[in-house]
Amino acid sequence: MNLILLGPPGAGKGTQSKMLQEFFNIQQLSTGDMLRAEVASGSDVGKQAKGIMDAGGLVSDSLILAMISKRLDQADCANGFILDGFPRTVAQAESLDGMLEDRGITIDHAIEIKVDDEAMITRITGRFTCAKCGAGYHDTFQPTKKAGVCDKCGGTQFSRRADDNAETVRARLAAYHAQTAPISAFYARKGILKTVDGMAPIDDVGRQMRAVLTAKGAG
Ligand code: AP5
């Protein structure tokens, strides 16, 4: 099964992708995570992307498409994948079609996580991640069971993203509405768009996702 998760910053794409990855044994491909790894490594790609990411804008289509094309050919995608944060422009969506056609594969479902913009500021500014295993948490909505200790690996170091401040989140939301939101109509026209209520608690959103994906006739 090959999936696309759509939704604004903070909608829960990363959180739900990780849950779907475990449930369906398919690979999460997050372009945001790939770019942050490039920035951390100090590569040329990372140098080009950093300023744009810090300002809340979108990195160039050509750079993103080259990165995702290479990633789709890796062995861990053979059983299926979840695209998280890609495509983000109609041009990326059209190029993805070509890439998949060349490989003889298709997207089964594009799931849009519907949320209210204002709530996304609180979600994003409260987000933190285990520095050792990458598990994601939230100060209020998804705290660690024991304060200061990662539930998954016992790590005690956590990090927050450089672009997770209120000002940058507003710029990211504006970029989403201007450049990414039109993609929903692109996938609706193909007949593969589904929606879930992303304002529900995390586990409820997960249940909605699994219901959509396992419904009779879901493909
Ligand atoms: P990226 O990393 O993709 O960031 P984003 O789209 O802004 O999305 P987020 O990761 O912020 O949110 P999410 O929906 O994954 O939410 P999460 O599950 O973490 O991109 C970063 C930057 O890279 C972009 O700004 C751009 O510059 C660049 N970029 C990336 N891809 C690109 C592309 N294709 N083209 C061009 N540029 C690109 O949840 C957020 C928090 O809320 C968490 O703490 C979580 O615990 C909590 N939470 C989740 N769900 C719920 C819920 N239902 N209820 C309560 N809390 C919840």
Give a description of the structure.
The structure is a single chain. The protein is of the alpha/beta class and about 220 residues long. The protein is about 50% helix and about 15% strand. The protein is built from 9 helices and 8 strands. The chain starts with a strand and ends in a 5-residue tail after the last helix. BIS(adenosine)-5'-pentaphosphate (AP5) binds near residues 11, 59, 86 and 124.
Q: Can you summarize this structure?
A:
This protein is α/β, with parallel strands linked by helices. It contains nine helices and eight strands.
Jot down its keywords.
219 residues; alpha/beta; 5-stranded parallel β-sheet; 9 helices; binds BIS(adenosine)-5'-pentaphosphate
Bound molecules: BIS(adenosine)-5'-pentaphosphate
State the distance separating the first and last CA atoms. 9 Å
Helix content: 40-55%
Q: How would you describe the shape?
A: globular
What percent of residues are in strands?
15-25%
Strand order of the largest sheet: 2-3-1-4-8
Mean pLDDT, to the nearest integer, reads: 95
| Structural class by SSE content | alpha/beta
pLDDT < 50 runs, ≥5 residues: none
Provide the succession of SSEs.
Answer: EHEHHHEHEHEEEHHEH
The description of the largest β-sheet is:
5 strands, parallel
- Number of helical elements: 9
The total count of strands amounts to 8
Oligomer: single chain
